[in-house]
Design goal:
This protein has 192 residues and is of the alpha+beta class. The chain has helices at residues 11-24, 52-60, 94-107, 146-153, and strands spanning 2-7, 32-33, 41-48, 67-77, 85-92, 122-127, 159-165, 167-176, 179-189. The protein has a single domain (2-189), classed as Alpha-Beta Complex (Cyclic Phosphodiesterase, Chain: A).
Length: 192
């Protein structure tokens, strides 16, 4: 099974993101936009594993408090000159990073490595090429995003809304020629 741990997004924020994507999508016709029904905030990617039972038991033991997070701003990875990922920003207090770290530390004894650097939350809206957010030494300009970048430069940064994270989920990711589909396997409540 291909698994990851993530937060779901409130429906109203999802609708605002969907309207925004619908508006800007014609400006980047050669880019693969992510289906808004699959939007989520990844806390820990686990990959292919047969450790479902152990993961579920471990995640049931994670204790963290609810927190607020806002979805606003947009940008590009690895940079605007050679973009491969178009993203919406996620802004939160220490609660989001703390939850991601708690999950990472909890599953590490099961053989899942902790992340090498700080947690940088974002919501992927579209990808071009590999979608790898890291800069490569031989990076070339990518003009597929140019029209979109020009339009965004003339607009105020969007604000998609704020929500309270009250729970997180263990998801299964199923890959197909039509793209990935995500299925919630188990819900874990955050403390009020």
């Amino acid at each position: 099974m291909r698994l990851f741990v993530a937060l779901d997004i409130d429906e109203e924020i999802r609708r605002r993101l969907e309207r925004f994507v619908h508006e800007v999508k014609p400006l980047a016709p050669d880019i693969r936009f992510v289906g808004t029904e699959t939007f989520h905030v990844t806390l820990k990617f686990l990959g292919e594993t047969g450790k479902l039972d152990s993961l579920q038991r471990t995640l049931r033991g994670v204790r963290a408090s609810q927190f607020k997070l806002s979805f606003r701003d947009t940008g590009f990875f690895p940079n605007e000159r050679a973009p491969r990922v178009f993203w919406a920003g996620i802004h939160a207090g220490p609660g989001l990073e703390s939850l991601a770290n708690l999950i990472g530390w909890a599953v590490a004894p099961l053989g899942f490595p902790t992340e090498p650097g700080p947690y940088h939350p974002h919501l992927t809206l579209a990808r071009s090429g590999s979608g790898n957010p890291r800069m490569r030494s031989h990076e070339r300009p990518n003009s597929k995003f140019q029209q979109l970048q020009e339009r965004l430069a003339s607009m105020p940064q969007p604000d998609f809304g704020t929500m309270t994270a009250r729970e997180f989920f263990l998801y299964e990711s199923k890959l197909s020629p039509k793209g990935a589909s995500y299925h919630k396997l188990e819900r874990y409540a955050l403390e009020p």
